[in-house]
Amino acid sequence: MPARLHQPDLGVPADLAARIAESARTTTSPVSPDIDDWLAGKRQRPFESVLVTLDELTDPQGWRFAAGTGNLEHYSGRFFTVEGMHVTTNHGHLGQWWQPILVQRDVAILGIIAKEFDGVLHFLLQAKMEPGNADMVQLSPTVQATSSNYTRVHQGRPARYVEYFTDPGRGRILVDILQSEQGAWFHLKRNRNIVVEVTDGVPLHEDFCWLTLGQIHRLLRRRNVINMDARTALGCLPVPATLGALTAGEPDAAPESGGRHTMTELLSWFTGRKSEYEMSARLVPLNSLVGWRRDAERIRPESAGNFSIVGVRVHARTREVTSWKQPLLAPHGLALAALVVRRIGGRLHALVRAEVLPGYRDTVELGPTVRFMMADYADTPAHRRPEFLDYVLSAGDRVRYDVVQSEEGGRFLHAETRYLVVEAGDDVPLRVPPDFAWVTVGQLLALQRHSYYLGIELRTLLFCLNSL
């Protein structure tokens, strides 16, 4: 762990915390459109994203299977590749496996412009079409683009508003953090989550809208409206730990205050988990994977598996390039990400898990209490199911948040996760297995201000928790 991260501190300027809280309380705005009608209009455009064979992806100016390795790559050498991975580990019951993995060496910008209107912070979101999106169009950050995109390797139109994040001095930085993405599907992927507040006028394009944090929180209660990249960028805002209803009435204390564990104890536990587990995640040729086969339609597991690699053909006149083909990772069914919370000593704690995944830069990040592909449930013996899985599935009236949300539509095809927040009582013990820890919301918010502590599912759940 880098020395500078030994003692994360919340350190939120009081004026900023108050302004974010005010934006979260504001649920109407004269500068915002009627979001239902506005978004419905964007979704009625003639977009197309259809499955094609893998052979149809290959094109001298498009994608190809590399000679020798069989890796699926773009002719430019940019964007991303589909490669193979061989994993060996001392964690869990499966000591080794082979799988395809998405390799994206570009650092993407997930950037949001913030601006005050009538004294209230608003955030500029885009109605963005992505080929893998459920419902095709969702609300995304102002800029959601890899360096291959915004340097125009595709020879398309420039990305709108990208200069606010690439040119220094355009505004006040509220957030600027490198964070990971799905460690099961990406190899060492990282994005720059950045929010910039401006005071000058911002020309408003028809596919963009200003929304308060309160309006965004309301949209989080609906399926597939706020996309994954907007959730992670906004979730990194330095919000007060008392913003959500579940934490209402608690003192807005420093991360060390009132927790079951001090921050030093939590960091020691986290470092211990990282030291305990060994994992080798070695890139190998895609055509050498054991247990996988390529046919005309997809690259798929020979037996039960969680995902396949498919190809799509896309038409979208609102994008910088209006027509293209690309591979996507297609999950086999719905995922579950559940966070158990309970009050300990009067403060709300979340039960988090040290999650070991092959795509993480340092093996372990903090995940939710449970993360599981539900298609595997019937075939997974009870003794191999994740701890607390059956508890959250039977939570009943203890559920405080239960909404299906899409994951990243630029790389995944219809990847959806059921996000659950379950408020528990004394039926969930304080003494938990070694991979788990009770952490206050304030401590999680403090850790989130640094890179590679919280995985993307936990960051989404924390954002949803603070929206309740």
From TrEMBL:
Pfam families: Hexose_dehydrat. Residues 34-237, 264-465 form the dTDP-4-dehydro-6-deoxy-alpha-D-glucopyranose 2,3-dehydratase domain. InterPro entries: EvaA-like (IPR005212), EvaA-like_sf (IPR038153). It comes from the Bacteria. This is NDP-hexose 2,3-dehydratase family protein. It comes from Micromonospora cathayae.
